[in-house]
């Protein structure tokens, strides 16, 4: 890897308290970048329900990244079954059979056979009345120390001056070392082209001053985008100043540049159905397994600032997270894509 110190670093901040799991970001990305037949299983942006096995299935147990000493760790390449994405429904039985309306539409095969993004992986945890779940968008983290680039034998992967991890498809030999080395499993192999592919940060849009599709299309205003070191920007303040936006699995050692504001779900209830204000609905231990020990400080800050607003005081942090104007999410990439289309 020739350029591990970009002049700037583009970053995403996802507020998990605002993500509604609508999949608009994943579909916007899919339609824009991976709509060819050979890219059926490629979802560069996915939204998983946590706690759950995610997509590809059980990706957190597939290895990759770096060990505690900073050495590249071997990882596993997901199988087609891990990605899933194809199964049949019992249309003939329901629509043309003599079921008298008693048979409902259902997928065929076992749960393991019909695994797919946003299908069997859409699951939560806990028990009634204190079940819990939340949604998490995931894409290429454009890591500051990308294990994929270090594992690539051809040098096809490089960091740009803006901090994106991009692939030269003319140089890629399809070794798939990058797929195994990425601990987040957000690189996909294209068998038709014989190369691997992943999120490119909507680079052509950025060149025209347009924010990535996953950011601009989000109806919940959950995703912020911009330069990590731009002082005073929402991304900079959420990550560096307030420290409420955290990387996913920092122990992987790749220094990812997609950050998450951890979820604060409604209080659980006691046996008498009164609110249990002493304990969180999502166990702190689980959140720590995702975001590391710093999650406790982030949750404490969020709670304190929410209490300030409840008391009638102002909070810059809460105002930033609410994002009253959607353009606050876009960083310096404020151009409307409709203007590009209209003017050519």
Name the features.
single chain, 344 residues, alpha+beta, Alpha-Beta Plaits, two-stranded antiparallel sheet, globular
Summarize the structure.
The protein is of the alpha+beta class and about 350 residues long. About 25% of the residues lie in helices and about 10% in strands.
Description:
The structure is a single chain. This protein has 344 residues and is of the alpha+beta class. It folds into two domains: 10-77 and 123-329, Alpha-Beta Plaits; 84-116, no CATH class. It has helices at 24-33, 80-83, 91-96, 147-151, 177-181, 203-207, 213-216, 234-241, 284-291, 294-310, 316-322, 337-343, and strands at 10-15, 46-50, 134-138, 157-159, 165-167, 188-190, 195-197, 223-227, 246-247, 258-261. A four-stranded mixed β-sheet has the order 8-1-10-9. A two-stranded antiparallel ribbon has the order 2-3. Strand 6 (188-190) and strand 7 form a beta hairpin. The longest helix has 17 residues, at 294-310. The model has no long low-confidence stretch (mean pLDDT 92).
According to CATH, what is the topology of the largest domain? Alpha-Beta Plaits
Radius of gyration: 21 Å
Q: Indicate the mean pLDDT.
A: 92
Protein structure class: alpha+beta
How are the strands ordered across the major sheet? 8-1-10-9
Order of helices and strands: EHEHHEHEEHEEHHEHEEHHHH
- CATH class of the largest domain reads Alpha Beta
Q: List the total number of helices.
A: 12
Helix content: 25-40%
**Count of DSSP strands:** 10
Counting structural domains, the number is: 2
* Coarse morphology: globular
Estimate what percentage of residues fall within beta strands.
5-15%
- Uncertain runs with pLDDT below 50, 5 residues or more? none
What is the CA–CA distance across the termini?
36 Å
Major sheet: 4 strands, mixed
Which architecture of the largest domain per CATH? 2-Layer Sandwich
């Amino acid at each position: 890897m020739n350029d591990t110190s970009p002049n700037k670093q583009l970053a995403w901040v996802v507020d998990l308290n605002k993500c509604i799991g609508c999949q608009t970001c994943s579909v916007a990305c899919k339609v824009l970048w991976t709509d060819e037949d050979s890219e059926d299983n490629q979802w560069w942006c996915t939204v998983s329900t946590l706690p759950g096995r995610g997509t590809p299935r059980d990706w957190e147990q597939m290895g990759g990244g770096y060990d505690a000493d900073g050495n590249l760790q071997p990882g596993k390449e997901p199988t087609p079954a891990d990605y899933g994405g194809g199964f049949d429904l019992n249309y003939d039985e329901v629509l043309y059979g003599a079921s008298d309306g008693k048979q409902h539409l259902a997928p065929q095969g076992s749960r393991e056979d019909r695994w797919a993004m946003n299908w069997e992986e859409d699951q939560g945890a806990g028990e009634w009345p204190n079940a819990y779940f939340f949604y998490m968008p995931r894409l290429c983290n454009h890591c500051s120390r990308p294990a994929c680039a270090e594992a690539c034998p051809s040098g096809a992967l490089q960091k740009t001056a803006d901090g994106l991890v991009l692939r030269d498809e003319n140089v890629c030999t399809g070794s798939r070392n990058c797929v195994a080395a990425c601990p987040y499993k957000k690189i996909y192999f294209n068998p038709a082209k014989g190369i691997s592919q992943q999120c490119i940060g909507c680079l052509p849009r950025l060149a025209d001053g347009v924010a990535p599709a996953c950011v601009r299309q989000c109806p919940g205003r959950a995703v912020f985008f911009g330069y990590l070191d731009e002082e005073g920007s929402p991304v900079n303040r959420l990550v560096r100043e307030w420290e409420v936006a955290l990387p996913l699995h920092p122990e992987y050692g790749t220094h990812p540049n997609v950050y998450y504001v951890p979820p604060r779900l409604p209080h659980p209830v006691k046996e008498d159905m009164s609110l249990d204000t002493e304990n969180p609905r999502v166990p702190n231990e689980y959140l720590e397994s995702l975001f590391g020990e710093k999650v406790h400080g982030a949750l404490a800050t969020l709670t304190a600032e929410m209490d300030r607003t409840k008391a009638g005081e102002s909070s810059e942090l809460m105002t930033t997270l609410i994002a009253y104007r959607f353009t606050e999410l876009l960083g310096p990439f404020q151009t409307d894509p409709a203007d590009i289309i209209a003017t050519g």
